[in-house]
Design brief:
The complex is a heterodimer of chains A (117) and B (529). In chain A, 38% of the residues lie in helices and 18% in strands. With 117 residues, chain A is α/β, with parallel strands linked by helices. Chain B has 3 domains: 135 residues, Histidine kinase-like ATPase, C-terminal domain (Heat Shock Protein 90); 236 residues, no CATH class; 57 residues, Orthogonal Bundle (3-methyladenine DNA Glycosylase II, Chain A, domain 3), CATH 1.10.15. Helices cover 37% and strands 16% of the residues of chain B. In chain B, the strands form 5 sheets. A 5-stranded antiparallel sheet of chain B has the order 1-2-3-5-4, with helices on one face. A 4-stranded parallel sheet of chain B has the order 11-10-13-14. Classes of the chains: A alpha/beta (117), B alpha/beta (529). At the A-B interface, α2 and α3 of A face α1, α2 and α5 of B.
């Protein structure tokens, strides 16, 4: 599913880049632990987190992760955005908390009737 | 071989990740597969962040060598006092600053280990920590299964053909006076080493000249894992107690025997067998026997108890510290080699170790007492020796497995099979007669029991598909028919003059075109008399 379509379900805003529909996303993973994010990050995976430092974008770059969704209305560190611009990582800003955002993204991605395993 | 070094600045969260980024560029140039790249990146980034979080500085060394990626991250940091605790998921000593950034979840080292094929760590408090990770760059196809544990010196061969007759799996050929091993058939036992009086076959020499020039204390790791038989190789006047003391003087602080894990495996499998419905259960005590079953008796694979061999259990037990291993056979060497390549686990030959301690043995004579104190033997509860069949020697093992396959060994609960006579006492890499060596050991009263565990297999034992004539079943059937036809036309003497161990083997070699110009020597020279 295109990112643009996916983020509508969480009323989020695509910060970077602002003129594209965003990458194709087939998987979402949420955590506030870098090690957990690192282990799960990969192509077509959007990471959902309230972390907002430059290391997040660096890790996404290393793991070829196309998109980051920052929850809780967290203001991203300017260096995060700089790194994201350099590496072409899409950054999405969302006001919802992590559980709510993840739940909505999951339902949107897997269908209304699906359950979390 | 490509070697690179990427410096890491401790405490600098802004530049953190740059070493891994540069490594990734290199991996792209090499064309490393995506999934492998992912694993390398996890290991490299976690290791790099450990340096950034805990140390003042460090270096990330990488080496691409023989289809492997080897990474070594060395830091100048506080070191880790308790590696066992540090490896536990969730344990962390990271600063509040690191935790605020999402680090310090205590998953760094476990993640590196999980991403690696071989993982090692050692640390000295106040000096620093060294993490090593090996990741295989590609999976090895079954058809390229190789006898990693055997090396051949063809220039020593006199063409006596003794090896041809000795090999229990007919894996040896002598073409153009050059002995060769068909890796697909070789089970890495010691039959060829034992048969060859010229010393053509041996296990590979792992140490290069640079290492040889190092002093013993630099060369060897503090823990030594050896077969007990090693202590009995120095004759009547040098009892095991003296050899043990000499090894201690050489710098080995902790000396372990592979039999510690073997004994525990035997006990565990005997207990495991009591709960099974199908007999006999095969105890995986000998790597060569396991390879034999995987290659030639695949129907017996479900009967192998799901535990790793003792040498693998020993490697697992020593995974968090430095250790030197002496391999008793090509099979053990083959299992040790992947861990040994990364450097921290060192594999040396018994000859090399013998050469090192010989000068020390004279000084030790008569002085080595109370080397160990005896500790109580473990309970024999659960052991049912009457239902256990112990057998030694590759040919005996083949015969018993044939009977087992035909259902003629169901009266035994457990099979404990070793390719060498008297188990590891009988390896031809040691000089002493196996019975004499075993008796000397049992008379030495040096037996010591320490709690060790049998280790369950991580992946199940699998049939070795390399035995197939062709991946296409139709073609394989055609080839089989041609082999039968050719074999019927050969004299059937199994003389070995052609370089194959039997007429059937020659027919197989001809059909598979293993070597140019193969023919029956007897037929060429005028047929049978």
């Amino acid at each position: 599913m295109k990112l643009e379509e996916l983020v509508k379900s969480i009323n989020a805003r695509i910060l970077q880049p602002d003129n594209r529909r965003g990458p194709e996303i087939t998987r979402v993973f949420a955590s506030n632990k870098m090690s957990a994010l690192l282990e799960q990050a990969g192509p077509e995976t959007m990471l959902v987190t309230s972390l907002a430092n430059a290391q997040l974008a660096c890790m996404a770059e290393l793991m070829d992760c196309p998109a980051l969704c920052l929850v809780d209305g967290t203001d991203p560190d300017p260096t995060l955005l700089e790194t994201a611009v350099r590496t072409g990582t899409t950054v999405v800003l969302c006001q919802l908390d992590m559980k709510e955002a993840y739940g909505r993204l999951y339902r949107r991605l897997c269908g209304k009737d699906c359950r979390r395993s | 071989m490509i070697t690179s070094c990427f410096p890491i600045a401790g405490g600098n969260f802004v530049s953190a990740g740059s070493a891994s980024r540069r490594l990734k560029e290199q991996l792209k140039w090499i064309g490393v597969d995506g999934q492998i790249m992912r694993r390398i990146m996890i290991a490299a980034y976690e290791a790099e962040m450990n340096v950034v979080i805990h140390a003042s500085r460090g270096n990330l060394w990488v080496r691409f060598d023989r289809g492997q990626f080897n990474m070594e991250v060395i830091d100048e940091g506080p070191g880790i006092a308790d590696l066992g605790t540090a490896m536990k998921p969730g344990f962390s000593t990271a600063s509040a600053e690191a935790k605020k950034l999402g680090f310090g979840a205590g998953m760094g080292l476990p993640n590196i280990k999980k991403a690696s094929d071989v993982f090692e760590i050692d640390s000295q408090v106040g000096k620093g920590t060294r993490v090593r990770s090996t990741i295989y760059l590609e999976t090895q196809p079954a058809e390229e299964f190789s006898s990693r544990g055997l090396s051949i010196q063809p220039e020593l061969c006199i063409g006596c053909l003794d090896c041809l007759k000795a090999c229990p799996t007919r894996a040896i050929r002598v073409w153009n006076r050059q002995p060769r091993i068909l890796p697909v058939l070789c089970i890495e036992c010691t039959a060829c080493i034992d048969a060859c009086r010229q010393g053509v076959f041996t296990i590979p020499d792992t140490e290069d000249e640079h290492l040889r020039q190092q002093s013993a204390s630099q060369m060897f790791q503090p823990t030594l894992v050896i077969p007990r038989a090693f202590l009995t190789q120095f004759g009547l006047k040098v009892p095991p107690r003296v050899v043990l003391a000499a090894l201690r003087n050489l710098g080995f602080k902790d000396i372990r025997f592979t039999e510690e894990w073997e004994t525990e495996l035997r006990r565990t499998v005997r207990r495991y067998a009591l709960e099974q419905d199908t007999y006999p259960v095969i105890s995986p005590i000998c790597p060569a026997v396991i390879r034999l079953i995987e290659g030639q008796f695949p129907s017996l694979i479900p009967q192998i108890a799901p535990f790793v061999t003792p040498i693998e259990a020993a490697v697992e037990a020593c995974s968090l510290r430095s250790a030197t291993f002496v391999a008793a056979c090509p099979g053990q060497y083959s299992l040790l080699a992947p861990a040994g390549l990364s450097g921290r686990l060192r594999v040396i030959s018994s000859a090399e170790l013998s050469a090192r301690i010989l000068p020390l043995l004279k000084d030790q004579a008569g002085t080595a007492t109370n080397v160990w104190t005896q500790s109580p033997r473990p309970s024999k509860k659960g052991n049912n020796n009457s239902a256990v069949l112990e057998a030694w020697g590759a040919r005996n093992v083949v015969e018993i497995l044939e009977k087992t396959e035909k259902g003629l060994a169901g009266d035994f609960q457990t099979l404990e099979l070793s390719a060498c006579e008297n188990g590891c006492y009988g390896t031809p890499l040691f000089q002493e007669n196996s019975y004499a060596a075993k008796k000397r050991w049992s008379s030495s009263e040096l037996e010591r029991w320490r709690p060790v565990k049998a280790v369950p297999v991580k992946s199940p034992y699998m049939a070795h598909p390399g035995m197939r004539l062709d991946a296409d079943m139709g073609k394989a059937i055609e080839m089989l028919a041609r082999i039968d036809e050719l074999t019927a036309g050969l004299p059937g003497r199994d003389c070995g003059a052609c370089g194959a161990p039997s007429c059937a083997s020659l027919a197989e070699d001809m059909v598979l075109e293993r070597y140019p110009g193969l023919e029956c020597t007897v037929a060429r020279e005028g047929g049978e008399s």
